[in-house]
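New to this. Help decode both lines:
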Amino acid sequence: MERPSINLNFSKESARGGQTAAKTIKGSQSVYRAIAVLRGVARHHHTGITSTELCDKLDLTPATTHRLLQVLLSENILTVDPYSKKYHLGLELYLLGSAAHDFAVREHLAVHLDNLRRLSGATVFLFVRSGADSLCLRRIDGDSAIVGLTIAEGSRRPLGVGAGGLALLAAESNRMVEKVLRSNTSLYGNYFDVSIEEIWRWVEATRKRGFSFNDGRLKTGVRAVGIAVGPPSERPVAAVSIATDDTRLTEALRIEFEQLLRVQFENQEKSLLNLDEKLFGGLR
């Protein structure tokens, strides 16, 4: 099942300071405005929203909106896509709001992520699905820095972009894949010049292999292998990927990475199902 959508109402009056409350609570106007901005972004957390759109919806000046957004960004409450300039909910808020599940998954897999980093010597990522995006919950850098690798904890990309996002997408049903691709059609051009049909071929190849593979098309000089993690009969709980410099990733090393992923995470299916049962009583 999909995660519940956030449906938060906000108004121009709330953005101007919650006028009645602001009169009785000294110095509260900036707090009310920040909450209004946060609600505005939350209401559009799947598609994202620009600073200009927030100004129009909240009847705030560009300067005020920019100042509030910068504060929320600095605290990781929000994140911004460097290509579309759209704001989304950030990792800090995501962890606060989803602590019952995603933070538990992050902690549950922590030892295996550390083992994977130690055994591979490469950079390791943990992703979860957030709407039509993949959200990076953990990044552990490898022995050698990868120049220009922009994925950070809290960053998000459309599902299908990168090894982790492709592994998550391929583990969904055909109906859900189609829905995600329609939702993200206008965004994929920010990352690579491919057709929806080609992304479908990547999905099919990932399902056939059992692993996703980023051959460097997304970021020149970087290659990665990924795997969806979770019970095979359920939607994936997360995805894990290993990234390294493409000059290092020979065919033999790629196969080794796949084996490491399989050893570290395939045996987690039962324990993750038990974790879901513990947290949600099987209702997720």
Notes: The mean pLDDT is 81. Residues 29-43 form the longest helix (15 residues). The chain has two domains: 12-95, 99-280. The chain has 13 helices and eight strands.
